[in-house]
Amino acid sequence: MIIDDEEKLRSLLARLLKLEGYAITEAANLKTAKKVIETNEPDVILCDVKLPDGNGVDFIAEIKQKYPFPEIILLTAYGNIPDGIQAMKNGAFDYITKGDDNDKVIPLLSKAMEKVQLQKRVHQLENLVGKKYSFDSIVGKSKSIQASIALAKKVAPTETTVLLLGETGTGKEVFAQAIHNASGRTNNSFIALNCGAFTKDLLESELFGHKAGAFTGAVKDKKGLMEEANNGTLFLDEIGEMPFELQSKLLRVLETGEFIKVGDTKSTRVNVRIIAATNRQLQEQVTKNEFREDLYYRLNVFTIDLPALRERKEDIPLLAAYYTKLFIAKSNSKISGISKGALKVLEAHTWKGNVRELRNIIERAVILENADQITPEALPYDMQHNSDGAINSFELSAMEKKHIQTVLNYAKGNKTETARLLNIGLTTLYRKIEEYGISK
Length: 440
Fold this sequence. Notes:
Distance between the termini: 57 Å
CATH superfamily of the largest domain: P-loop containing nucleotide triphosphate hydrolases
CATH topology of the largest domain: Rossmann fold
Strand content: 5-15%
Low-confidence stretches: 387-394
CATH architecture of the largest domain: 3-Layer(aba) Sandwich
Number of domains: 3
Radius of gyration: 30 Å
Structural class: alpha/beta
């Protein structure tokens, strides 16, 4: 947008910028400019300083307050350092002199446009992330999942420690992220750690950090995730897997906000909210002396049980539709949805892997399906024939061979990706490729 009361200059500049591919709007005064901006917010504004009904320097502050994205470049007939300084303070992208800086206009405009596009993209991604980790992203209308969501919403704004209980694949980390996102810590870090993925020594170093020289290979100081999550949230998944010896250190953090790094002699203070999760029965572990009783009660301040998918089968159509839409968008597939026949098969399944298993099955089905909708034939064979009786070994091997070949072709020959999509080990994939004589 060009705002200038000199019509000839405004028209000349407009023609020049149109040749560069820009769509141009014009205004001779601030009153007209404001009306245009309200209906058609421009990306970049070229604005004269001296206008019949106001000053361009003051105009910057007003526009920036209402519209965060447009960048404003001020144009003046006379170079004025105080005006330039104030313009930059008010949020101007730059300040140039008419005539003397004509060669600068187009490169400057290009830079301003790049900045606007970047800001819009960042804003868009922030909104997507916010939605992804909000309670709105948790799919399900069943009473059991809605009860869990209601509890999570109540505890989210507090500083209370939360314990999430549920089978593997029920969405414990999704709940933890939604709780963090709805808390006062949302602008700070959310860090997740699987306590069962490390040995005792590695877990201690990963969680609490270490000092240089604390052990062989510790060549420099390292911050632990506890410190990285300061003022944010630390999600400790599979807390029941945490070695007994480390549980006392975690208890101290919960009680005092302090811990000692490996190899250090002084305490480090942190302000961290802990959300823990487990698929184990912690009370049984306490009875067997495998989990500290005092830590259990400290974690068990506010417990939320997440239902297994087989306990909320009425949510399967919603979840299937959600993941179908998600993976259609990711793969640019021409599939329009999921068929009633496929839904019937999904609803009959036992879902030992819960929502995570459903998600993976839909992802593979979207890849494999050639029809307009996901059909039962695109679902795993054991699901297809669950109620129709077993098929003979010759048919199964032929179908398996075709299935592997299809996925291998989709992955463009990438064996690691093929094994991931098939949910089998890489060694198993190579054995089956050899066994069936599949083209590599």
